[in-house]
Design brief:
OB fold (Dihydrolipoamide Acetyltransferase, E2P); disordered C terminus; 2 domains; about 270 residues; 5-stranded parallel sheet; Rossmann fold; 5-stranded antiparallel sheet; phosphoprotein
Length: about 270
């Protein structure tokens, strides 16, 4: 099922688009888990909890007088989720060529000036297309995790690690572009893809993005990404942070290194106490 998000600050246009979506569901095979309408961009961004091509966004380009605000939001959504479906709905048809410069790979561009019947058809067409392709556009190099409460689809190469959240029954997915939190179990995630490695009961890592340097007992991800204290403590229980001297500008904790995925178990045994 789709998760449908609408960003539109005009009440009349909100109602028009929402009615078109509901009519599409009545007349076609399209189904959604939820439909949420927002007038403020920050509220929409804060509500995103999943990732994948089941995430559908109708975005107005002009929000609160800011002509290209919708494009900026689309760019942020795309940075978080390369598979999300984005459709612009606006009166500014002259901005259509500009959307390509934002590199958000929008599925379509719907003009609010269309007659009601044409507007309905345009909305239905994009929803049907997205719904029919939910299970058909998953790339081989993607990680997919589906449960009754969560649907996550991200490029495997972007995954750094998964860790248990402070919120009960939730898991945090840390990627190269950010993080998302969803309902699930670390143990189930470890079983979902054989390329992942469960280094501890509370964390699962992507070996492709980890390396090790056996000199001076310094460890870290290949690139400089923020690593949470709970994740580091889970990976290396009892390890004294005062032993680690090297500092980078991007890591929350001063850690560094170069890693070999087939050495993880050995390394953990060496430094655990």
């Amino acid at each position: 099922m789709l998760n449908i998000f609408v960003l539109e600050d005009d009440f009349f246009q909100q109602s028009r688009l929402e009615n078109a979506i509901r009519r599409c569901v009545e007349e076609t095979s399209v189904r959604y888990k939820f439909l949420e309408v927002f007038g403020k961009s920050n509220q929409l961004l804060e509500s995103i909890e999943e990732a994948g091509n089941h995430q559908f966004f109708f975005l107005d380009i002009e929000i609160k007088g800011e002509e290209k605000k919708g494009m900026e939001i689309a760019k942020e959504i795309r940075a978080r989720d390369p598979y999300a479906v984005i459709v612009f709905v606006t009166t500014h048809s002259e901005f259509m060529p500009v959307t390509y410069r934002y590199r958000v790979s929008a599925l379509d561009f719907i003009d609010k000036g269309l007659e009601d019947s044409d507007f309905q058809k345009a909305v239905s067409d994009v929803l049907v297309h997205a719904f029919e392709n939910i299970d058909h556009t998953v790339a081989e190099n993607s990680f997919v995790y589906k449960t009754e409460t969560a649907h996550i689809q991200v490029p495997f190469s972007d995954i750094l690690y998964f860790e248990t959240s402070s919120t009960i029954h939730k898991v945090i997915l840390k990627t190269k572009t950010g993080q998302t939190e969803f309902y699930g179990k670390v143990s189930d995630i470890a079983k979902a893809d054989e390329r992942l490695y469960q280094a501890h009961r509370s964390c699962v890592v992507n070996p492709l993005n980890i390396s090790v340097l056996i000199t001076a007992v310094l460890f870290a991800f290949v690139h400089s990404y923020e690593i949470s204290l709970s994740f580091w403590s889970a990976l290396f229980p009892g390890f004294l942070f005062s032993w680690i001297y090297y500092k980078t500008n991007h890591l929350k904790y001063p850690i560094v290194a170069h890693i070999l995925s087939n050495s993880i178990v050995t390394i953990l045994n060496v430094i655990s106490v």
